[in-house]
Amino acid sequence: MKFFVIGFGQAGGKILDLFLENEKMRGSGITIKTLAINTARTDLMGLKHVPMRDRILIGQTVVKGHGVGTDNRLGAKIAREEIETILSAIDERGTHDIDAFLIIAGLGGGTGSGGAPVLAKHLSEMYSEPVYVVGILPAPEEGKLYSLNAARSMVSLLKYVDNLILVDNGAWKFEGLSLKESFAKINEEIVKRLAILARAGEPVEEGMIGEMVIDSAEVINTLRGGGISTIGYATTLAEEKKKTPKIKLPFFKKEEKEPNLMEDDKATKIASLVRRAALGRLTIPCNIRSAERALILVAGPPEYLDRKGLEKAKLWLEEQIAGVEVRAGDYPTRRTKYVAALVVLANVTDIPRVKQLQRLAVEAKEEIEEVEKERIEKTLAIFDEDIEPLV
Length: 391
Ligand SMILES: Nc1nc2c(ncn2[C@@H]2O[C@H](COP(=O)(O)OP(=O)(O)OP(=O)(O)O)[C@@H](O)[C@H]2O)c(=O)[nH]1
Ligand SMILES: [Mg+2]
Known about the structure:
Layout: E1 3-8, H1 9-26, E2 33-38, H2 41-45, E3 55-57, H3 60-63, H4 72-81, H5 83-93, E4 100-106, H6 111-126, E5 131-137, H7 144-160, E6 163-168, H8 169-172, H9 179-199, H10 216-222, E7 227-237, H11 251-255, H12 259-279, E8 293-300, H13 307-320, E9 325-332, E10 338-346, H14 352-382
Parallel strand pairs: 1-2, 1-4, 2-3, 4-5, 5-6, 6-7, 8-9
Antiparallel strand pairs: 7-10, 8-10
Magnesium ion binds at residues 9-10, 40, 43, 67, 109, 111.
């Protein structure tokens, strides 16, 4: 799955940066086209892995490189005004060999929250490739303005994206850490998931064959329809099974040990790993029974992958979700000691946090209007009532 990844705003930029660092560290050789867009110069300068030429500062004449200070209407306005700059940067990097666009943004702030929908709109109109957004929801403790921003952004995004993958900062805050301190860890969790998604349909390392290959068209088919998705993930150490006696037995001797039992064991392990991914903490908690479609991806050393296990997991997941479309595939790799399972639950509808956000946003809007009304009334009260207004 070849993504054109665009990090919009600070959170988006940081996650993109970590994604690139992760790919470099693994030496994955996967080429990813990237852009980091922001209204804040220091945020862009703080990135370490996004190439300098891929960093775009917008809104310079309006906010002088200082960010929009959580005003997402201003964020959207700046993005609209400078959309040509952004689109030509995308065009220059070429889109002929990409499978999809992936915009990453924090939805509670200003730049990414306002800019991502504007960009999604234009990309969806101009290109046939699907447009996905990874949207980070604010934690409740960040206050109502963030909720209002997120709700506004989400409503606009859902008009244009092929899929909105949500991550809830509130659900992911780590025990004993402040929200800010949690960001680095949350970002790691997001990147781990995106890295597996990016492997779907990509060529495997030399000499390796997957048990069940999945291609990018299948990912695209799962994510079609413009809804909200959530991602589950679980890993297990692949070396677990190798707790063999200290005296090393020749390899062929190990092979002689009840091969059928070993195979069954492998299948069960894969199936339970997938189950753990689907039932564990999702990027946004939701009722998995409300999902329309799902995608299972398992990555790890080839001897731990198993077709029967995947089939089993697929059947199980088909029973869990509302729809019946479950796709499954695996990706063999020697670059990790872990077997990881990714479960994408597409077009989920029962998401308590989204409902809560909508409520909070309505309240915030009413409060803001109330404050504005009071201010206008107070200001007018300064004047003598005898002065007639002009209009
Ligand atoms: N997961 C995660 N969330 C973040 C991170 N940084 C900020 N956020 C969240 O994103 C929202 C703020 O978005 P930012 O990306 O900081 O804002 P921005 O797009 O740069 O917009 P302005 O700063 O207002 O111009 C808040 O809800 C934060 O909780 C991060 O590194 N990781
Ligand atoms: Mg910022």
